[in-house]
Amino acid sequence: MTSIRYNGEDLNYRVSLSKNYKSGASILKEITVPSKSGKLIPLGQLVTTEITDNILMINHYDGDRSVTVYGDLDTTVNTSRKVTQAIQKEFSSRLDGDPTIRLIFGGEEKDTQEALQSLFQALLLALLGIYFILVILFNSFLQPFLVMSSIPFTFTGIVFAFYIHSMTFGFVALIGLIGLMGIVVNNALIMIMFMNYSKKDNQITLEGLADSATKRLRLICLTTLTTAAGLFPTAYGFGGDNAFLVPMIMAIAWGLIFASVITLFLVPSLYLIQYRGLARLENFNQRFFK
Predict the structure, then answer these.
(1) For position 12, what pLDDT does the model report?
(2) Which of 52, 53, 132, 207 has its CA 20 to 30 A from that of 159?
C-alpha cells in the first residue's frame, strides 16, 4: 500500500493480486512482467525466490514473544466456551511442563469473561443497594436480611425453569437475575411490614404470624400472578418470538413465582426465629450484665 499526490491531495491506493494468484507462494513465479520490447516474461525467469522467517517482525504480548492464532466459530455446531475448554485440555500437559509458555484467550471468550465479571460486580452493588435502602426503611440492620432471604430461592425457580425447558443459563439470563432481585423483595417487604404493625405489646406468637401471612396471602398472590401473566406471553413467544429476551424473561417470571411461594412460609419462620433469638439475647444481657 502506498500513496500518490494528485491535485494537492494524498491518495492512498493498494495494488493487489486477484484470487487466482493467492493460492500459494509458488504461483508468484508465474506472474508476467513486460520487457523493454513489450513481451511478457514470467517473473520466475528473472528472479529467484526463497521462503524465510521475517526477523524484522516479532510479535510481543506483555513483553514476551507471542504467536497469535485466529479462527472463526460455527455457532450452529459448537460454542466458544466448549472450544476454549477443548484447547485448554489439549495443551494443559505442555503448559504444566514449561513455565515459559502461556496460553491466553481473546475474542468472544475474553469478551464473555469481562462481561461476566462486570455483571458480578453489578450483582454485588445491587445487593448492597437493596440492603442499605431496607436499613433506612426499617431502621434496623437485621430485618433487611429477612427481606433479602427470598433472593437465594429465586435460583431454585430459575434452575427448574431452565431445566424443564432445556435452556442454557447464559449472559442474558444473568441480567434477568439481577433485575429479579429488586422485584422479589417486594413480597417479603409487604409481609414483614405487616407483621411489624400487627405486633401486640411488642409480643410475637406463632398464631399471630400465621394470621398475618394469611391476610397477606391474597395480595402476594395477586401481585405475583399479574407480573407473571405479563411476562409469560413474551417468554413463550405468543405474538412473536424474541430469542434474545426469552432467557431473561423466563428467569424473571419463574424466579418470581418460586420466591413468592417461599416468602409465604420462609419469611414468617425466620421472623419468629429472629424474634426469639433477640429475646434470649436480651434476657442473657439482663441476667449477666445488669
Answers:
(1) 82
(2) 132
181 three-class SS: helix
Give the residue from 227, 141, 147, 144 showing the smallest Cα distance to 191: 147
8 A C-beta contact, residue 239 and residue 233: yes
Q: Residue 262: is its pLDDT beyond 70?
A: yes
Q: Coil, helix or strand for 29?
A: helix
Query: Closest by alpha carbon to 102, among 48, 66, 50?
Result: 66
* Burial class of residue 254, CB neighbours in 10 A (0-12, 13-18, 19+): buried
Residue ranges and CATH numbers for the domains of the chain are: 1-51 (no CATH), 52-105 (no CATH), 108-288 (1.20.1640.10)
Tally the C-alpha atoms within 13 A of residue 41's C-alpha that lie toward its C-beta: 11
Cβ-contact 122, 110 below 8 angstroms: no
The C-alpha atoms of residue 261 and residue 265 are separated, in whole angstroms, by: 7
Backbone angles phi and psi of 12, in degrees to 5: -85, 140
Q: Which residue has the higher pLDDT, 58 or 229?
A: 229
Q: Report helix angle 154-164 to 171-198, nearest 10.
A: 140
- Count Cβ atoms below 10 Å from residue 198 Cβ, excluding itself: 14
Residues in contact with 257: Cβ distance below 8 Å, sequence separation at least 6, in sequence order: 157, 224, 228
| Look-up of cell digits 493487489 | 16
Sign of CA dihedral 87, 92, 97, 103: positive
Contact partners, residue 159, CB within 8 Å, separation at least 6: 169
Query: What's the predicted TM-score (pTM) here?
Result: 0.62
